[in-house]
């Protein structure tokens, strides 16, 4: 079906009933940006900035970070790029970072990582903020923060960025026309504070990789658990449905940037729940776009409450049967 997917490159990711879904790619390195033109995606919904740190033998200094971000923005042209601040620490430990105080965590996935490390080691985050802000001078910068568990973490991260913006501006250098801030939702606790954080967000991005591992208390890297819980289980879909409804009511665009969105049946379920943006691995753009273009979103949304009330371990068979009988 390769040729069929290639032929859809320039067609919009729009459902049969006219709902436009934003279909974006996940990226992390300069070379990943070629995927935008190859796939015809709408932009980069998740740029994992820690990749540059992970492939470097030494801590990337500001100039190197800034060069990467500028190249990424140039490659994207007028398509949006959402940069996620570094998600390092825990299992993505950096050998060149002084690790005295982060050594030997018993549960690195639940450890001192991402925004937790970023706010405490704020020199690292200030450098990154400055690199991003200067790289995006004269354009819109979109930033999001990983592993936010409570609204105050988001507030502190935004304040750090705003202080850098002011500093750069006061020193007569160019700053972005606008900075759009958002957060990942991948720690379940944040869902309990959504009403407090939504008014401050320009967008919300659900990271289903970590979210499902935390929701089910099941290590995402443990092969013994890989088959045990399904992304199409009622628990996950109900959770995502509730978050999506709240975000939509607050007029905050909500997307999914975990691997779940790259599988056509899962992506179909997400659209059924009201998700309007998927950021996925580039190879999945073709199959997911084909699914979107054959879907009647309104018909599916009408059925979702019924599916979600079924006390099954997984709704995969039911959703798959619906897809088959509806030409998806
Ligand atoms: C996620 O957790 O779903 C996610 C997109 O981030 P990462 O896979 O980089 O942890
Ligand atoms: Mg994550």
UniProtKB/TrEMBL annotation:
Subcellular location field: Cytoplasm
Source organism, top-level taxon: Bacteria
Family per similarity comment: Belongs to the PEP-utilizing enzyme family.
Protein name from the UniProt record: phosphoenolpyruvate--protein phosphotransferase
Protein species of origin: Rhizorhabdus dicambivorans
Part of the full-length chain shown: 429 to 756 of 759
């Amino acid at each position: 079906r390769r040729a069929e997917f290639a032929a859809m490159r320039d067609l919009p990711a729009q459902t049969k009933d006219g709902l436009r879904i934003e279909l974006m790619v996940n990226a992390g390195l300069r070379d990943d940006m070629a995927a935008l033109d190859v796939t015809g995606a709408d932009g980069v919904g998740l740029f994992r900035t820690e990749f540059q740190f992970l492939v470097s033998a030494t801590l990337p200094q500001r100039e190197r970070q800034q060069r990467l971000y500028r190249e990424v923005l140039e490659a994207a042209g007028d398509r949006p790029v959402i940069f996620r601040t570094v998600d390092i620490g825990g299992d993505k430990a950096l050998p060149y970072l002084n690790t005295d105080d982060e050594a030997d965590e018993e549960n690195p996935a639940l450890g001192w990582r991402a925004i937790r490390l970023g706010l405490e080691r704020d020199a690292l985050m200030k450098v990154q903020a400055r690199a991003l802000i200067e790289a995006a001078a004269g354009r819109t910068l979109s930033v999001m923060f990983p592993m936010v568990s409570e609204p105050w973490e988001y507030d502190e991260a935004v304040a750090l960025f705003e202080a850098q913006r002011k500093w750069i501006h006061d020193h007569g250098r160019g700053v972005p026309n606008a900075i759009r801030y958002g957060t990942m939702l991948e720690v379940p606790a944040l869902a309990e504070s959504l009403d407090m954080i939504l008014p401050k967000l320009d967008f919300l991005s659900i990271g289903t990789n970590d979210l499902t591992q935390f929701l089910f208390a099941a290590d995402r890297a443990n092969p013994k658990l890989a088959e045990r819980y399904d992304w199409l289980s009622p628990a996950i879909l109900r959770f995502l449905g509730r978050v999506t409804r709240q975000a939509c009511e607050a007029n905050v665009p909500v997307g999914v940037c975990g691997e779940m969105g790259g599988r056509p049946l899962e992506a179909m379920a997400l659209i059924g729940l009201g998700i309007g943006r998927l950021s996925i691995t580039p190879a999945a753009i073709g199959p997911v776009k084909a699914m979107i273009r054959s879907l009647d979103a309104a018909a599916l949304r009408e059925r979702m409450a019924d599916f979600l009330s079924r006390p099954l371990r997984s709704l995969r068979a039911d959703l798959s049967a619906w897809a088959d009988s509806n030409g998806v």
